[in-house]
Design a protein that fits this description.
143 residues; mainly alpha; globular
Length: 143
């Protein structure tokens, strides 16, 4: 609450950015639980906090818990981990760019989203570009 009083920016920073960090580190529902609790503390309603946290977690969940879903998929089916990671990493950045817009649109409507679209675009690109690069050139653990 000390960074900004704009609830839309709080939502981007906490639900999308902080939630994505938690998804990569822990996964398994932790990001939604933690970010929803923080949003509750900032005055969001319980339904809004949980629903918006779930929307925000849409993009990062594929590579959650240090890439566990991708690694498991590749191992179970006998696929090359890097091929699966790269293919997901070519598709998912599109959604990673869209999800922050969807998140704010769901919370504040079209007009509210358009008022802060530069911040939303920076947030989406800051997530999508490293996601693409990491998945195509490094591996699923860091993405």
């Amino acid at each position: 609450s000390g960074i900004t009083q704009d609830r839309r920016i709080q939502l981007l920073l906490i639900a999308f950015c902080f939630g994505a960090f938690f998804e990569g580190a822990a996964g398994f529902g932790t990001p939604v639980a933690v970010t929803a609790a923080i949003l509750l503390g900032l005055g969001f309603s319980p339904l809004a906090a949980s629903g918006l946290s779930l929307i925000a977690n849409t993009a990062p969940v594929a590579f959650g818990a240090l890439g566990t879903p991708v690694i498991t998929l590749a191992k179970v089916h006998g696929y090359d981990v890097m091929e699966v990671t790269a293919m997901i990493g070519r598709q998912l950045p599109v959604f990673s760019l869209i999800v922050p817009f969807w998140l704010i649109w769901s919370f504040a409507g079209r007009k509210g989203m358009m008022e802060i679209w530069p911040a939303i675009l920076v947030t989406g690109l800051s997530f999508a570009i490293p996601q693409y690069l990491g998945s195509n050139f490094i591996g699923p653990e860091l993405v």
